[in-house]
Structure formats: structure tokens, C-alpha cells
Amino acid sequence: MEFSIGDLVTRKSYNNDIVFVITKIEEDIVYLKGQFVRLAADSEIDDLVKFSSDKLEDDVDFLRRIQIYNEFNRDEYFYLPGKILHIDGDIDYLSRCLKYYEDNNIWAIGISAKENEISGQMYELLEKYNPSIVIITGHDAYYKKQGGLNDLNAYKNSNNFIKAVKEARRYESSHEKLIIIAGACQSNYEELIKAGANFASSPKRINIHALDPAVIAAKLSLSDVTKDIDLKGILEKTKYGSNGLGGIKTKGTMYVGYPR
Predict the structure, then answer these.
(1) What's the CATH number for 70-255?
(2) Nearest Cα to Cα of residue 136 among 106, 116, 156
């Protein structure tokens, strides 16, 4: 079977569990990126089978489920949603998240940066954009053969995300004044929370959807600043719920004004 860059494929050795897009082919090795989950991988070409785009009903249902329907009283009041700074190690996933914010009328700025470079840019970016919410994400992975769940050396980028979270907390220590959403597929959830994240992946060390951090951020952006969020309700909006992301109770970031 012939393959080309851009083809959708699955891996036979993994029971065809994840849909990938081919990003590069070098002889018999094919480089892959999750079509929906934040996962990068490579595979021998013989392990791949093509995946038909007309079989993506599950993801279509998810995209429909995460659309935000605002029922604001715009006759009398005006609304100021929280601003989002989204820093992403993957420019394709970043673009999808920015489109999601745009579709939901949320102000967001997107920055593409390699995971190991985010911490060095964090303080300057926060000073420049002064967001209510910052997302620190990209790609990560847990390698069981390299250590236990608590060993940061067993993770691809968790340590880089932790450093970035700590830099963000150096800028603003209050969890209420700056909400931090951090991590990617299989990240060390506990250490990210300890470092100062409000929300993080991944409690069960599973893959997360490319839009999951944006789903959390959008909901927080459009939640009243005077009220506690529905923590469980927000997590249930993500693709894999509390298995993929967890967090702490906090308030929203949207101000409501009168008169309009």
C-alpha cells in the first residue's frame, strides 16, 4: 500500500486505536501526528493502514458537544470575557484552538514555541499581553521503561511544562488572578498542579484531545468572575473527562457590566 504525506492512518500493532496524519516519510519509517490527540509518533510503514475520513463521527460529535451557547442578557448588560494567552508547541493544534476561540467570540492570542523554550519566554509574554488565562501545552509522553509515574525523567516534556508554570507563578502568584492550564498527552498531572497550575493533564496518564486545553480556557473565559466554576462540569466537557484533565476550584474570569 502506498502512503503520502497528509494521509490519515492507524497502526495495526495498537489495534488501530488512534487516527494519525502522516507528516514525513523516510524510507520505511513514517512520522505521525495525532489527528485529534496531542501525540507524535513514528512507525514502520508495514504497520499502517489507511483511515477513511468519513469514519470520523466520534470527533464530529465531540466538536458539536463543546460548542458554547451563550445565553447572556445583551439588552441591558455588557460582558468582558477573560483574555487567553495560548502557548503551544504544535502550530497545527494551536491553529485549531484559535479557530475554536474565534468561533466562540473569545479574545485570544496564540504563540507557537517549542516546549523547552516556553519557560524562557513566559514572563515577557505575560507582561506583554496581561491575560486572565494562560495555556502551556504541546506534546508530551510518559515512557514506562524510563521510570515510574513520579519520575520526571520518564516524561518527554513534563519538566519543561513545570518550569513554564513556575515562571508564570513568579509573574503572578495568585491562582485567582492568573489561571494556568498546563500539560499535554500523558503529562505528570500531580507535579504540574504542585508547580502552580489550576488545571493540568493527565491524571490517568492518557492522551488528551488537541482542543481539550482550549475547552477549559473558553469555559473559564465566559464564566462570571464573582462565582465559583462548576469544576466537574467543566472537566466533563473535555474528550476524556477527569481521566485526561483535572484541576482546582476557582472563579471565572468574565466581568459583567451595566448599562449596555
Answers:
(1) 3.40.50.2300
(2) 116
